[in-house]
Amino acid sequence: MAVLKQISTQTIFAGGVKDAVHAAHIAKQAEVAADDYELIFDEQEIQALRRTQYSQESDYLFFDYMAAVTEFGETSPEAVAAKDAWLAKRNAIKETYAKPE
Predict the structure, then answer these.
(1) What gap in Å lies between CA 78 and CA 82, rounded to an integer?
(2) Of 17, 35, 36, which Cα lies nearest the Cα of 97?
(3) Using alpha carbons only, what angle is made at residue 64 by residues 61 and 69, rounded to the nearest 5 degrees?
(4) Alpha-carbon span 49 to 6, nearest angstrom
(5) Most exposed among 45, 63, 91, 101, judged by the fewest C-beta atoms under 10 Å?
């Protein structure tokens, strides 16, 4: 889980936050502006969430890509499209669950 920290006051105003969507919902309920909070996970938690999202949302795209490479060749339009779809989803997950700085 994560906590929400209000930037302007430097106070933590919520805990037990699951993800960015949940954070936005809680911040709205707490009447904290969208640009006035940060979602803070610990690194192990971020890795676990990222792995879960990869399994649910991008692993099958990787398998589609590998199947297209095997069937049509690595530079085929089918393989290139499958690779682009997989990498786009993968990068979206990385953005959502970025490593703490």
Answers:
(1) 6
(2) 17
(3) 130
(4) 23
(5) 101
pLDDT score of 48? 81
CA distance 17 to 29: 13
Q: Which of 12, 11, 9, 59 is nearest to 1 (CA)?
A: 12
Give the type of residue at 60. Y
Q: How far is CA 88 from the centre of its chain?
A: 11
pLDDT tens digits, one per residue of 58-99: 999 999 999 999 999 999 999 999 999 999 999 988 887 777
CB 65 within 8 A of CB 82: yes
Burial class (CB in 10 A: 0-12, 13-18, 19+), 55: exposed
Would you place residue 100 in the very low, low, confident or very high pLDDT band (cuts 50, 70, 90)? low
Helix (H) or strand (E) holding 37: strand 37-40
